[in-house]
């Protein structure tokens, strides 16, 4: 076996040491939960009757305790294209469970909002904290203690992190995450990007833009660009929480159904055992593997927030310094839109996660010895699933089938993982350098300060930003307004960049894997609310953003300035209901979670 890279080893050891007390506390809790989980024979008959009453086809098996009972936590809705296929999953999963002498019930549902629908709208302010709601909904579903294993149905942005955070509080049980796969490829990503920029520049109308977007997002399945949703699926593979190779198999195929069946059969096999419980699978090495996969594939920067939150739910402490150090040695292996021309279907066809895992392990750039839901550790994830005479098997993938899409770790696109930590007198922030041309790594220019993204677009249309400029969008942090994603800024700023201006964005708001080619210092912490550094900046101040040196600073003297007044909370679209979560949240680097902060985790 190839020796593990020294930096990865050192960072992992530091995470273990920093997490020693919290991880021990978590594992002790999971052991207590396992010890006190009631056997059905010890539960009052009235309680059992309530639990079994709706399961007509499985009542006899449940009453007799003939096999394990799997709890399905589903994020199904048919407004979200990625989750639309889940509508029929529970019925199929119950059949799959019966095939191996088990039973399955829908333990509960969670909300599942689509950032693509709320992008640039007021509803986006609910998005990040829907993750806490999903985690708590998962907890409610599993609190009935009627289950011997957990099947999590979720794909998209906040949904997988929320499901994992909630399920980890029931980590004494085994759990498998079951994806449904991406939609087929639509129009080329280059064409989509060009159309968006033409619309931003006023060269085409809304009808042409809508037709282009419908050419991209056109059928059930995950959106095919490499944003947060597909990064979620990558991470579940790198953590060993999927059936190997299941992340990017399209819905409605025989292979997809065979993998879904394998997931339930495997979960039934693990139920009642203690070797591969969720608490044991998600350890420090698994979290590091998730970070490594994110960096190696150029995944979503939203996970700079989600990974610390998911880790904390398992008693593991990770920060942006850890991510940045790992990024210094993990090479960029994939060019998936918006970091390249091809989408996730092209990525999968080129070798996908099987090849990424193979080449990382081959170069000592990932932990091979983690515990996974499947036998064989991470080596099992270096093969892709295939159907041979309707039988599911796996074939090793040892070479890239398209080196314009996917390259070996020994000959990568870029020597580092493309996620930089920038720091200075404006705070700490993330810079996704893998999406940005190196000649734009440094931007130093007068800033223009805004307090919402709509005003940025207005200024752009009025020609007020036609200059070298650092656009500062503040009061977009977790406690200010729920930290909405500001992806709708990208087309306007990209147009400015294409006009030859030196442009950058600095914000305490979020951007994702769909952020694109504009240099951006994002997730800035401390946030502006409450007197953070961004509340002291003024239009015209010189601001420097540099991915090469890791700098985020201003030459202005902030020490004598009075912070800009905090904005008033906004009502409407349910935002007022989320104020409790927002005001209890901790910082972006800690995971921006009210649930974890309130629980003292």
From TrEMBL:
Could you tell me what this protein is called? Phosphogluconate dehydratase
Q: Which GO terms describe its molecular function?
A: 4 iron, 4 sulfur cluster binding; metal ion binding; phosphogluconate dehydratase activity
Name all Dihydroxy-acid/6-phosphogluconate dehydratase N-terminal domain ranges. Answer: 68-377
Annotated source species: Erythrobacter insulae
One GO cellular component, as annotated:
cytosol
Alphabetical list of PANTHER family matching this protein: D-XYLONATE DEHYDRATASE, PHOSPHOGLUCONATE DEHYDRATASE
Q: Provide an example Pfam family for this protein.
A: ILVD_EDD_N
Which Enzyme Commission numbers does its entry carry? 4.2.1.12
Which GO terms fall under biological process for this protein?
Answer: D-gluconate metabolic process; Entner-Doudoroff pathway through 6-phosphogluconate
Q: Which InterPro entries match?
A: 6-phosphgluc_deHydtase (IPR004786), Dihydro-acid_dehy_C (IPR042096), DiOHA_6PGluconate_deHydtase_CS (IPR020558), ILV_EDD_C (IPR056740), ILV_EDD_N (IPR000581), IlvD/EDD_N (IPR037237)
Enzyme type, top EC level: lyase
PROSITE patterns per the UniProt record, alphabetical: ILVD_EDD_1, ILVD_EDD_2
What keywords appear on the UniProt entry? 4Fe-4S, Carbohydrate metabolism, Gluconate utilization, Iron, Iron-sulfur, Lyase, Metal-binding
Domain Dihydroxy-acid/6-phosphogluconate dehydratase C-terminal, first and last residues per copy: 405-592
State the family it belongs to.
Belongs to the IlvD/Edd family.
- Domain of life of the organism in this record? Bacteria
Q: Which residues form the signal peptide?
A: none
């Amino acid at each position: 076996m190839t020796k593990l890279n020294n930096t990865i080893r050192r960072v992992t050891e530091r995470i273990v040491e920093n997490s020693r007390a919290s991880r021990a506390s978590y594992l002790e809790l999971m052991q207590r939960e396992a010890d006190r989980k009631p056997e059905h024979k010890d539960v009052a008959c009235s309680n059992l009757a309530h639990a079994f009453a709706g399961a007509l086809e499985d009542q006899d098996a449940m009453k007799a305790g003939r096999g394990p009972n799997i709890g399905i936590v589903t994020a199904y809705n048919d407004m979200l294209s990625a989750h639309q296929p889940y509508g029929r999953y529970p019925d199929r999963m119950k059949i799959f469970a019966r095939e191996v002498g088990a039973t399955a019930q829908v333990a509960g549902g969670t909300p599942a909002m689509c950032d693509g629908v709320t992008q640039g709208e007021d509803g986006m302010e609910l998005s990040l904290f829907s993750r806490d709601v999903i985690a708590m909904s998962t907890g409610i579903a599993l609190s009935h203690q009627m289950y011997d294993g957990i099947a999590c149905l979720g794909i998209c942005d906040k949904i997988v992190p929320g499901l994992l955070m909630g399920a980890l509080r029931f980590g004494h049980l085994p759990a498998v995450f079951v994806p449904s796969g991406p939609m087929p490829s639509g129009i080329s990503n280059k064409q989509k990007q060009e159309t968006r920029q033409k619309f931003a520049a006023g060269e085409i109308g809304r009808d042409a833009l809508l037709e282009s977007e419908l050419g991209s997002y056109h059928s059930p399945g995950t959106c095919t660009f490499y944003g947060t949703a597909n990064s979620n699926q990558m991470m579940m593979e790198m953590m060993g929480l999927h059936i190997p190779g299941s992340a990017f198999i399209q819905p409605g195929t025989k292979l997809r159904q065979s993998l879904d069946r394998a997931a339930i059969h495997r979960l039934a096999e693990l139920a009642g055992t203690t070797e591969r419980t969720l608490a044991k699978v998600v350890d420090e090495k698994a979290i590091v593997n998730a970070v490594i996969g994110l960096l190696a594939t150029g995944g979503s920067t939203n996970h700079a927030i989600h990974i610390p939150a998911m880790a904390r739910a398992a008693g593991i402490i990770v920060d942006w310094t850890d991510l940045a150090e790992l990024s210094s040695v993990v090479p960029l292996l994939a060019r998936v839109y918006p970091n390249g021309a091809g989408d996730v279907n092209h990525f999968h066809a080129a070798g996908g996660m099987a090849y990424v895992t193979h080449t990382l392990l081959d170069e000592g750039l990932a932990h091979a010895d983690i515990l996974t839901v499947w036998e064989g550790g991470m080596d099992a994830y270096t093969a892709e699933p295939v159907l041979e005479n309707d039988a599911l098997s796996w074939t090793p993938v040892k070479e890239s089938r398209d080196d314009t899409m996917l390259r070996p770790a020994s000959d990568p696109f870029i020597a580092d993982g493309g996620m930089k930590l920038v720091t200075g007198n404006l705070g700490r922030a993330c810079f996704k350098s893998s999406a940005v041309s190196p000649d734009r790594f440094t931007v130093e220019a007068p800033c223009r300060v805004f307090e919402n993204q709509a005003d940025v677009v207005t200024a752009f249309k009025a020609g007020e930003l036609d200059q070298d400029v650092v656009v500062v969008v503040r009061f977009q942090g977790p406690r200010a307004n729920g930290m909405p994603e500001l992806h709708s800024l990208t087309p306007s700023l990209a147009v400015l960049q294409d006009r030859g201006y030196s442009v950058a964005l600095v914000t305490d708001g979020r951007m994702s894997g769909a952020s694109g080619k504009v240099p951006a210092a994002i997730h800035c912490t401390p946030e502006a609310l409450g007197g953070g550094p961004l509340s002291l900046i003024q239009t015209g101040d010189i601001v420097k953003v540099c991915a090469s040196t890791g700098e985020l600073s201003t030459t202005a003297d902030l020490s004598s300035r009075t912070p800009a007044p905090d904005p008033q909370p906004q009502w409407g679209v349910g935002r007022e209901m989320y104020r409790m979560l927002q005001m209890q949240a901790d910082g972006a680097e800690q995971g921006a979670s009210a649930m974890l902060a309130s629980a003292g985790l």
